[in-house]
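User: I've been trying to design a sequence by hand for this structure and keep getting stuck. Would you show me what you'd pick, starting by listing the structure so we're on the same page?

Assistant: Good idea, let's start from the same input. This is the structure you sent:
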């Protein structure tokens, strides 16, 4: 069997920055943000603190990078939504795309859920809330009845809360939870369209 070219192998490998982020999110989730130090992150990676400092000066910088990635992905969805007609099909697709953003950021969103006090001090929750508000504005007209605005908000938060905070019996039901949550969210937008 022929070995893949070095460039192809390297493209499939996470960058040092991504490895730091992955290790940090795992340690933050396991020990809590407040109880994880840069030294521990460096030790788990098998690098010096100086090597870690090259990419991130503080653990606050690492946490900020999680939000930046989430914000970029959500902005991409909202940018697409801004170019589409304000109709049920667009709104359904926005929810599907948001579901994919959540899927790709589950570890970060769980970290956010479990470390809200620390993140409030870092003023990072505002990034999350602003993006949700932008998405909400694409799902419902600003002058819609209160019940419709609440349904649109619930469509967003249902995806987040069910995927991140709903108690699991085991991992085998993960995909079923995700699909059911998406259907509930879409149902709320469909109810708005019908009213």
């Amino acid at each position: 069997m022929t070995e893949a070219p070095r460039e192809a192998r390297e493209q499939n490998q996470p960058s040092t920055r991504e490895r730091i982020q992955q290790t940090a999110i795992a340690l933050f989730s396991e020990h809590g943000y407040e109880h994880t130090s840069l030294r521990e992150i460096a030790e788990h990676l098998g690098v010096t603190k100086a090597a870690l400092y090259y990419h991130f000066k503080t653990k606050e910088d690492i946490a900020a990078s999680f939000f930046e990635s989430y914000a970029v992905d959500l902005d991409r969805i909202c940018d697409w939504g801004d170019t589409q007609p304000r109709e049920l099909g667009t709104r359904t697709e926005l929810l599907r795309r948001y579901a994919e953003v959540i899927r790709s950021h589950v570890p970060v969103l769980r970290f956010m859920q479990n470390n809200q006090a620390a993140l409030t001090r870092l003023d990072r929750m505002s990034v999350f809330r602003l993006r949700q508000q932008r998405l909400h504005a694409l799902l419902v007209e600003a002058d819609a009845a209160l019940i419709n605005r609440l349904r649109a908000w619930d469509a967003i938060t249902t995806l987040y809360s069910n995927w991140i905070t709903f108690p699991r019996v085991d991992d085998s039901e993960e995909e079923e939870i995700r699909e059911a949550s998406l259907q509930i969210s879409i149902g709320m937008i469909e109810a708005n369209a019908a009213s």
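That's my pick for every position. To get oriented when you compare it with your attempt: Residues 59-82 form the longest helix (24 residues). Residues 133 and 158 are 14 Å apart (CA to CA).
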